Amino acid sequence: MVLLLSGAQALAQAPSVAAWQAAPFALYFTNTVLLVVTVIIANFALCTLVAFAFVRYRFRWAGPLFSQE
């Protein structure tokens, strides 16, 4: 694909075009999505276990922390 640009536009766009072509952005995006999904699933699982422990077990500071009497 050939872009017909004036001199100033070619200078302004040349570094960004080269950067998009040089780096494997699809791989970076895939890695980011996998990382985010893993973190969200782990966070949900751990928060669920902690919430169950807070509801099920009584401990010393439960009243002031959760307004229970």
Describe the structure.
By secondary structure, the chain is an all-alpha fold. The protein has a domain at 22-66. 77% of the residues lie in helices and 0% in strands. The chain has 3 helices and no strands. The longest helix is centred in the middle third of the chain and has 32 residues, at 25-56. The mean pLDDT is 80.
The number of distinct helices, counting runs of at least 4 residues, comes to 3
Taking all Cα atoms into account, the compactness measure Rg is: 26 Å
Structural class: mainly alpha
Secondary structure tally: strands: 0
Q: How would you sum up the major sheet?
A: none
**pLDDT averaged over residues:** 80
Low-confidence stretches: none
Helix content: over 70%
Shape: rod-shaped
Beta content comes to under 5%
In whole angstroms, how far apart are the ends?
Answer: 72 Å
What is the H/E string? HHH
Outline the secondary-structure elements:
Blueprint: H1 7-22, H2 25-56, H3 62-66
Keywords:
69 residues, rod-shaped, single chain, 77% helix
Nutshell version of this structure?
By secondary structure, the chain is an all-alpha fold. Helices cover 77% and strands 0% of the residues. The chain contains 3 helices and no strands.
